[in-house]
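Methods — Computational structure assignment.
A single polypeptide chain was analysed. Its primary sequence is given first, followed by the predicted tertiary structure written as structure tokens.
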Amino acid sequence: MSLYTRRGVSAQKEEVHKATEKLNKGLYPFAFCKVYPDFITGDEEWVNLMHADGAGTKSILAYLWWKETGDLSVWKGIAQDAIAMNLDDLLCVGIYDNILFSSTIDRNKRLIPGEILEAIINGTQEFFDGLKNFGIQIQYLGGETADVGDVVRTIAVNGTMAARWKKDKLVTNEKISAGDVIVGLASDGQAVYEKEYNSGIASNGLTSARHDVLQKYYGTHFKESYDNALEEQVVYIGPHKLKEEVAVGNSNISVGKLLLSPTRSFAPVMRQLLLEHFDKIHGLIHCSGGGQTKCMKYLHSNFRIIKDNLFNPPPIFQIIQRASKSDSREMYQVFNMGHRMEIFVNEKDAAGIVSVSNQFGIEAKVIGRVESSTKKELLIRTDQEELVF
């Protein structure tokens, strides 16, 4: 049993999928988000979407950082995490504007004071204000903030996005076909709209990252930061402390900063691509939960996906793998490992997609291709090995 499983989490969320298997799959079962008829007005040319996600256990890392440093600004990053994990899912069905957002914050009031709530709520609005500079309008409609210390050990930061969109401007993944190439947008680096280097960690796999990278010190001093029923052998078993600095390129960055890099939203890039290259885009995948295997859930037919020109894993993933001693199979199923957005297009259109991404300071390249097959299959090929899923 993997460390990930022993900690009570699942990269593939099998039990969640089983629990929801009888629900309506929406109008387009292979689209990245569920798409429903326009229940609001009954217009057959429009659709409705409502999507929920959040920062996950990354908020616990923010709590640890805040306790060690007193730095409240870290909570703005958690606000961005909750937004980007919603927004970038919506981008994958073609939605980039006129979006509504409602936040849900559950806290243990004994441990999380009001100033943290203010930092999260103000950080939410600040992020939306920044997106408006790129033509992306998201209206913040408040939400629910609850004191539920009997349920939540520290804090949970989540949100829900809703949109009404033209049916003929959706990306449903039904155009993915053999012969397509896959353009990957890098998860790390510094986009023109980011203030500092982004490690690329996003908001998936943070339970694993936290316990595998950080020292026992955190389990001893912050019992509220983990499930006390876990086996001691899987709790904070790493070599690092949050403020410890490691080399990243020509700079030194703390382990805490790398783990807490706010989830990058690709919204500015994707808005331009969807406005200028919509007809060229056959499919979109956000490599979130499930990492590089995420694409397998959204294939409408039997295809072999071959990813054989991946980005080198950014330093944060190398740190996690060294600390956890996880094999590559688990790493590629849990983490994005270097790119978080996949765009399926004809080979002749790939260069134009790459060029737009580069204009925003985000590296992009063809990372793989689609082949016909007798079954749905994913092959990941690196310099060292070949993984088949």
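Note: Residues 35 and 172 are 9 Å apart (CA to CA).
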